[in-house]
Amino acid sequence: MSTTRLISCSAAKDLIANSRGVFNRNRCLNKRNLVYKQAFPSTLLITRKMATTKTNAAAAELTPKCLTLGNMNPNVKVMEYAVRGPLVTRASEIEKELEKGVKKPFNEVIKANIGDCHAMGQVPITFIRQVLALVSLPELLEDPRFPSDVKSRAKAILAGCRGQSVGSYTDSAGIEIIRKHVAEYIQRRDNIPCDYQNVLLCAGASDGIKSVLKLLIEKVDGKTPGVMIPIPQYPLYSASLAEFGMEQVGYYLNEEKNWSLDVSELERSIAEAKKTCNPRAIVVINPGNPTGQVLARQNIEDIIKFANKHKLFIFADEVYQDNVYAEGSKFFSFKKVLVEMGEPYSSMELASFMSCSKGYMGECGLRGGYTEVINMDPEVKAMLLKAISAMLCPTVLGQV
Predict the structure, then answer these.
(1) Which has the higher per-residue pLDDT, 69 or 140?
(2) 323 HSE (CA, 13 A, CB side)
(3) Do the strands 278-285 and 350-355 form a parallel or antiparallel pair, or are they unpaired?
(4) 3-state secondary structure at position 348
(5) Three-state DSSP class for 208?
(6) Model pTM?
(7) 263-273 and 297-309 are packed helices; what angle lies between their axes, rounded to 10 degrees?
(8) Considering all CA atoms of the chain, what is the largest pairwise distance in Å, rounded to the nearest integer?
């Protein structure tokens, strides 16, 4: 006989007696429960749900997670983005405390972590907002309150949209007519031809920068790819390099010379970096962010020569090109200088970036921008277009 079935006679009697007692108690309880159910049916249901929830929660705690801090992407863990870091989080908490009447030795919090123009009181440009209104609600095209030039622009944009609606997907590189408008702008700025097919619209310059940066993620001769970035810099670059597992190669701007860029510092930086990684690109932010300097044309020429010497892909971050205020300062695009320098420099690979978040527009929340790539290997460009197609298209109102 198995041990599970072996019970002494006295134990059996106790078990039967206890069972009868339990049965009798249950009969009494069941009668009371019946009355309770009739009087408070919803309360009993809530009690049961609470018990089930607690049971499920307890079971979840015992179930090991598939994704943990120990087995997640290590690059994401080391990535830091100061623009949205703990200081900003604490600042937002303090703002809420002030709104609730908590006493502080100050009355407001001024956030200087990011260039958010409209949040600081910049007034939107009427033309931009009117065009956005018409493409979003086309029936307003019949409204006499809107000027004819606004209606003309809105109609042209809607004609370029599938189904004449900004609610439809666009080409991955953006709406063709808007890409042509961007090319016209670049051509007016530089007095140099611009092929609209080299213009890729993106959800802010940051999106375009990361799309091109990804193309460089490949070890060469067993060395991790490195990218030269200015110090101080916009945190997007250090964060993206960490996320992509690439090496940050910092070069220091000369504060004593109005944050200018010395070629001797570039040479020092790349020589040191080549010991541990393979530098493949250089990022130049002009006008500077956060330093605000505007590079002289000669300085740009020196940087281009340096990049050519070391076979570096140039990233020209030019989102502040309309924010030039210092007397005697003038903005020159890297494309203009590179082309006007002639060969071999005019054949160098360059990606330049612009955004509607800065300058005179300041439309940060719309997430609009563009990338212009020149002299890129056609096969590599095809891979870039394939990569951005995975995201379907940039936000359409941002393109507008």
Answers:
(1) 140
(2) 23
(3) unpaired
(4) coil
(5) helix
(6) 0.75
(7) 30
(8) 108
